[in-house]
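hey so u asked for the seq, here:
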Amino acid sequence: MSFQHEGLFQNVLQARGIMDDAVRFVTECQLKDRELWLRFAEVFETKEDSELGRWRGEYFGKQMRGAALVYAYTQDEELYGVMTDTVLSLLEKQDELGRFSTYKVEEEFRGWDMWCRKYVLVGMLYYYEVCKDEALKEKILSACRKHLDYILEKVGGDEGKIAITATSHWWGCVNSCTILEPTVEMYKKTGEQRYLDFAEYIVSTGGCSDCNLVELALEGELSPYQYPVTKAYEMMSFYEGLLAYYEVTGERKCFDAVCRFIEAVAKTDITIIGCAGCTHELFDNSVAMQTEYHENIMQETCVTVTWMRVLRRLYQLTKDTKYIDRFEVSAYNALYGSLNTELNEQLCMETGKYCKAMAFDSYSPLYMNTRGRGIGGYNEFASGGYYGCCLAIGACGVALPPLTAVMQGDDGVYVNGLFEGTAKVKDDDGKDVTLHFDSKYPANGDGKITVECENSCRLTLKIRKPDWCEDMTVNGVCANEGYYTLTATYQSGECVEISMKITLKARRLNGKIAFTYGALTLATDEQKSARELQKTVAVNEPLTYRVLPSAQGELLRVECDLADGDKLILADYQSCGKKWLSDKPLMTVWFNGEEK
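ran it, structure tokens below
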């Protein structure tokens, strides 16, 4: 099976419901803001990051990657115009040395300079994939060559060059080494050996000045939170670069290192909402720590999106549904929970003041806390306004679920998740077919796929059974496997009926209790529940509950019976705590459990 990387150009799916709502919200509130994009380009001229070693230079590439992926799904021509104008503006900022840098030459290759240069490549190359102007594509590739070639002149393992692991004083230079991924992409685009050689050099360093991340993962003696460097976002970005390197070289140890690292992260650091880091954005044994009250910020949106990206890339290489299972939990809980759908002002930790509302919140609470507690990666612009890292990366996150729900493989159509909407695919003979999906997933596991074709078609559907699902049927037949493969000849209008039983489940840890419902993590907040959140929760065995009509913004609302006769109102995590400026902002996933 081969999938085009990232699903660009597929445009196979048009969803309704939360997947589409999230994309449209971000597009209108963020991606079409021309003034914002101009500020992103402007900093490459003003060099605002140089003096204090900041990271404004990351915003262009982070958000352009997300915008390109969103465009691949929506085909929104207004968005395409905004992206194009921004790229043209940035191309004018390339200096006579070929650099796109927010650092002055005399202060380059320190702080976050390489990290920001990496993101210039990322943004340009993602836009390149959706660009419809061949002349502009050539101009972009030429600019990227000059940009990367300057780095190759100055950085590397040869005498007289700066070691890549000495180009930053932050986090063992893992941030700098993440340039591995777009370097490999430049090799793919150009076939130029020097880029593959530079990628090989980066891999040889182990991606860090303090340890060898490749060897640590392969050895498996330490958990990621025990590594000398524990910055979750940057580490995962480096491992994604290892996957890219494996894709072009077949270097098996790189693939194995990523797989082992991801399993180790899942075991010790991915929480019930599908994110990591109860201490800022650091690996810290979050699986064990997630039930405790944390005064500090936690569960950063940058970590959520990067985790989803690596999972999706591993899935594309392996077909293993466990990666989609994890991806889905992150999307429906941590990611969609980070959307600032109420457009509340957000607290700036640096100034202690509230700032203008933006599309994403940066941090996600798990136990007796509130949303809106900080702006990750906060920077102000000399020309006014502010931005942050999680704001810039969020669009990529919301684009990934609709680009993943249905994927065209060379051995059939992979249905990775049910939804409401349509998908345009190819049948087994290469003919166009439209699939109409009717489902209230993830709140309801029942769904129907109606095949629309000219005359008849022979179609292979591979329908994913989620790991939380104990019983799934397809057209009444038991389908308890990773993918249920159904090959049949359909007349236009014929249906495939899918049923997945979803039940409320209690999760116990460290004397606390939480609840899940399929892929959804449940929570409550002071707006939804009259019951004090701190009160002990003891449940009946087995659980007794009712699914109630959902309130606005909710995917699911459940009333669970408690052992003392009281009722506990639960709703999907992404809908809770969104009114963080109200006088009742508290929310929780984990509840105090009964004494044993």
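Residues 1-9 have pLDDT under 50 and may be disordered. Residues 407-500 form one domain.
lmk if thats what u needed
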